[in-house]
Design brief:
- The complex is a heterotrimer of chains A (about 80), B (about 375) and C (about 375).
- By secondary structure, chain A is mainly beta.
- Chain A has one domain: Roll (Ubiquitin-like (UB roll)), CATH 3.10.20.
- Chain A has 1 helix and 7 strands.
- In chain A, the strands form 2 sheets. A 5-stranded mixed sheet of chain A has the order 2-1-7-5-6, with helices on one face. A two-stranded antiparallel sheet of chain A has the order 3-4.
- Chain A is globular.
- Chain A starts with a strand and ends with a strand.
- Chain B has 3 domains: about 160 residues, FAD/NAD(P)-binding domain (3-Layer(bba) Sandwich), CATH 3.50.50; about 130 residues, FAD/NAD(P)-binding domain (3-Layer(bba) Sandwich); about 80 residues, no CATH class.
- Helix content of chain B is about 35%, strand content about 25%.
- Chain B has 12 helices and 21 strands.
- Chain B is globular.
- Chain C has 2 domains: about 160 residues, FAD/NAD(P)-binding domain, CATH 3.50.50; about 160 residues, 2-Layer Sandwich (D-Amino Acid Oxidase, Chain A, domain 2), CATH 3.30.9.10.
- Helix content of chain C is about 30%, strand content about 25%.
- In chain C, the strands form 4 sheets. Chain C has an 8-stranded mixed sheet with strand order 5-6-4-14-15-16-13-17.
- The longest helix of chain C has 17 residues.
- Chain C is globular.
- Chain C starts with a helix and ends in a 21-residue tail after the last helix.
- Classes of the chains: A mainly beta (about 80), B alpha/beta (about 375), C alpha/beta (about 375).
- Chains A and C meet through strand 6 of A and loops of C.
């Protein structure tokens, strides 16, 4: 079994399996509001393959990060 | 130097065959690991051989642009941009899913069919999740089987194709015993999940996230509650780079779509580009057969016209810029729509709405300019050539 | 319908066209609106089926006042006033944003130029503010430290040109997809063999003018632009380096300049480049690289931003950097409205107003004379 690490999602610490993507970590934590669309709708991943840009979140201060293409790291700060 | 873009089945097969012929090969892929979408997280003989081959693999590398004259490729990696030079380039970029807009398709919880499988393969637990799968093609069955194996409750698979078409497809299966065996294995895994033909998801509803989908079969409509919906209306080739570098004699395009065809095309490309086309001779017959099968697939799962009337005026087509179907209806072509509504101007560069608009309105995709994928500005500045 | 009928009135059977405007870019659209408001029956044709799909779509949409010459100042400042008056009517998609423009001085020499500009504009009642090193850093925190200062042009704004053009074209008859191959004093010939009669014809065709009026002194000048993803708050004003004056005004070699614009969407539009002697519309990597490197010199933080798209366009440049507005020398009833170089969006409204004044015999707020197509040009180059 893979080890667990801790990331922060909107300030809350959550324990996630190492080696998974940020998108999977968020979905696993039942976080389905990844980004807010330009007209204010909540959005979550669609394509799961880095194409659709619906899974964008802010990671360690970097906006527009595609969470389905980025692996979790200890202490990572994720803002949806 | 041969550079292979894409480490899916076609790319891996091409790289291995070229290496066998003594060529120097490098493979780049935008994912962290080789395998592409279909072999994501799997192990099989091709992947094992690739890992053992020592072929340099540049992971998480997005191709930003290429230059057919200078024979270079600009890629962006987490460590920065790199400019690769090539004598021969094999583009095995694979495919993405085709999504057709319907009311509610932007709700969190509505995934691509392949997309939900990719997330599950990346570690998302689907155990005890209720899922409705809709769209068309054999991928729906593969996804259903995978999700069920991992504990999901697949309530229903809605296949838009007609049973008559599927019967024709079954005949084609009988000519391909391997396929038939795969089909039987799939059938065992999806037993218990109704496979409903002539049926599609008409809308999705929920407060802030998906709660239910409404299905249609003929004149009957009904609602199924679910946690996730997995939608896929077939595949669209990721042909941006190939289109951009068209007309270059040293660029070869290999394999999109159906798995066996992709592998065969990859092998043929690898042999040919490495200078040993005679070694590919034995593969042409097989490729022909695989090609026939892929064509039969396309035929069987051709999209029905009713799907064009799924979007309502307020249904969003361009998800990056939230452009509605009703607004798009006012424009004669994709360029006019793009300039006046922002449709396709977001970061996905029209990869999602472009094929949808092509289906809905018959619009041709627009022209291609670098960056072929969004890239850091720093990556577009002078890079040293490798 | 017999052949004779088909030759005329193809779009509007039974009606006559008072004014036909060739070119549905922003200049053509502005002319259409101006003449239509004056009561003329106006039709606009374009070889494309997109309104504002040519240089209009490629431009930045910087509604600025410039001071290269008194005539350029007169036209740009008059036009800015007209844009300001029009702005309450502009639809949201025209993305009118009164962000102000800031000339950036990198050193003491450029600061001298800032001071000159300050005196120039102050003397002409244009609202400007001098910024010192600290003030410019506060106004634009993402500029590199150590710049000398700048000049804030308070009334400058930006817009999204294709939608502004579409707004100007509202209720105007539009003939899309019609390529004009010849112009005469009573109308035009289309490539499909049809004719359209009009009382007067205005050629607002940008660089295409030389196809219809071969001796028109207009040259294509290629430019590149890049737009980023959305980064609200990264940039507050349109920023232009003072070195822009050197590069924008050189008619000799390829040049780049730091010229960035905040969009209402939070996106950042990055320019600019200028090239003569090419008609290839492809994005050229070496020009793009040079242009971005220049931008990053001024705003190092740009390197980390995500670029979504690049494109190119062709400005219609003239030897004296002033547009051609007024009667065509060789053809009666034909007028030109082209040659605006990089200021077509900015000066479209004034161009249209002056031309309409001239055609209708109205008094003008400023003199048309410096822009008349029949003026004498010094030898090019």
């Amino acid at each position: 079994m893979a080890e667990c690490i801790v990331i922060r999602v909107n300030g809350h610490a959550i324990s996630v399996r190492d080696g998974i993507t940020v998108a999977v970590a968020l979905l696993q934590a039942d976080e389905l509001h990844f980004r807010t669309s330009v007209t204010g709708e909540p959005r979550a991943p669609l394509c799961g393959m880095g194409i659709c840009f619906e899974c964008r979140v802010t990671i360690n201060g970097h906006t527009h990060a595609r969470s389905c293409q980025i692996l979790v790291r200890e202490g990572m700060q994720v803002v949806t | 130097m041969i550079v292979v873009v894409g480490a899916g089945p076609a790319g891996i097969a091409a790289a291995l065959r070229a290496q066998e012929c003594g060529a120097r090969v490098t493979v780049v892929d935008d994912n962290p690991a080789p395998g592409g979408q279909i072999w994501r997280g799997d192990s099989n003989v091709w992947l094992t051989r690739f890992r053992a081959s020592g072929i340099p693999f540049i992971a998480s590398a997005r191709v930003i642009t290429g230059d057919a004259q200078a024979q270079t490729l600009l890629v962006e990696t987490p460590e920065g941009a790199r400019k690769l030079t090539w004598d021969k380039l094999i583009i095995a970029a694979g495919s993405r899913e085709l999504f057709l807009p319907f009311p509610g398709w932007t709700l969190p919880g509505v995934f691509g069919a392949g997309g939900l499988q990719a997330l599950a393969k990346s570690g998302l637990s689907v155990a005890d999740k209720t899922v409705v799968i809709g769209g068309t093609g054999p991928l729906l069955l593969a996804v259903a089987a995978y999700l069920r194996q991992h504990g999901a409750h697949v309530k229903l698979i809605a296949e838009q194709a007609s049973p008559a078409g599927l019967a024709g497809f079954a005949k084609e299966l009988l000519r391909n015993p391997n396929k038939l065996l795969q089909g039987v294995a799939l059938a065992r895994h999806i037993a218990g999940s109704p496979y409903v033909t002539n049926c599609w998801i008409e809308s999705a509803t929920g407060q802030g996230r998906l709660e239910a989908v409404t299905l249609r079969q003929g004149r009957r409509t009904w609602t199924e509650r679910c946690d996730f919906a997995a939608i896929g209306y077939g595949l669209v080739p990721d042909n941006e780079l190939a289109t951009f570098l068209m007309n270059s004699p040293n660029v070869v395009i290999a394999g999109t779509g159906e798995l066996n065809l992709a592998i065969l095309e990859g092998e043929i490309a690898g042999f040919t580009v490495a200078g040993y086309p005679e070694r590919a001779l034995g593969l042409y017959g097989k490729r022909e057969k695989a090609h026939r099968f892929a064509t039969a697939l396309q035929h069987t799962f051709a999209l029905r016209h009713e799907l064009k009337s799924l979007p309502r005026p307020d249904t969003i087509v361009c998800r990056c810029e939230d452009v509605t179907f009703g607004l798009l209806c006012e424009f004669p072509n994709s360029r006019a729509a793009k300039l006046h509504t922002r449709c396709g101007m977001g970061p996905c560069q029209g990869r999602i709405c472009g094929p949808a608009a092509e289906f809905l309105f018959g619009w041709n995709p627009g022209s291609l300019r670098p960056p072929l994928f969004p890239a850091k500005i720093g990556s577009l500045m002078p890079a040293t050539t490798e | 319908m017999d052949a004779q009928d088909h030759q005329y009135n193809i779009a509007l059977p039974g009606t006559t066209i008072d004014a036909l405007i060739v070119g549905a870019g922003i200049v053509g659209a502005a002319c259409a609106r101006e003449l239509s408001l004056a009561g003329l029956k106006v039709t606009v044709c374009d070889e494309s089926d997109v309104i504002g799909g040519g240089a209009t779509a490629a431009g930045m949409g910087h509604l600025a006042v410039m001071d290269d010459s008194e005539a350029q100042f007169a036209l740009t400042s008059y036009s800015q006033t007209l844009w300001h008056e029009l702005s309450p009517q502009l639809p949201a998609e025209a993305e009118y944003l009164p962000c102000g423009s800031l000339w950036v001085a990198a050193d003491a020499e450029e600061m001298e130029e800032v001071n000159r500009k300050f005196r120039f504009y102050s003397a002409r009642a244009i609202r400007v503010e001098l910024l010192d090193e600290q003030q410019i850093a506060e106004a634009e925190p993402n500029l590199r430290p150590g710049l000398s200062g700048g000049l804030l042009m308070c009334a400058a704004s930006v817009c999204y040109p294709p939608c502004a053009a579409a707004f100007l074209m509202k209720r105007i008859t539009f003939l899309p997809g019609r390529r004009v191959i010849a112009v005469s004093s009573d109308g035009v010939d289309f490539a499909d063999g049809t004719r359209l009669a009009a009382g007067l014809t205005i050629l607002a065709t940008g660089t295409e003018i030389t196809r219809l009026v071969p001796n028109a002194p207009v040259y294509p000048r290629k430019g590149h632009l890049l737009i980023t993803d959305r980064y609200p708050g990264f940039l507050n004003h349109q920023l232009i380096e003072l070195g822009y004056l050197k590069s924008a005004h050189s008619t000799e070699s390829d040049s780049v300049a730091f010229n960035v614009q905040p969009r209402q969407t939070g996106q950042i539009l990055i320019g600019s480049s200028r090239q003569y002697g090419t008609e290839d519309p492809a994005t050229e990597s070496h020009m793009l690289s040079r242009m971005l490197a220049r931008a990053v010199e001024y705003m190092p933080g740009l390197t980390e931003l995500s670029a979504i798209r690049t494109w190119t366009g062709f400005r219609a440049a003239t030897p004296d950097k002033l547009p051609l507005i007024g009667p065509c020398e060789s053809l009666n009833n034909v007028y030109l409205a082209t040659g605006h170089e990089g200021l077509g969006i900015a000066t479209s409204l004034a161009t249209a107003r002056l031309l309409a004044d001239h055609i209708l015999g109205r008094a003008s707020a400023i003199s048309l004379e410096p822009y008349l197509p029949g003026r004498r040009f010094a030898a090019h180059g």
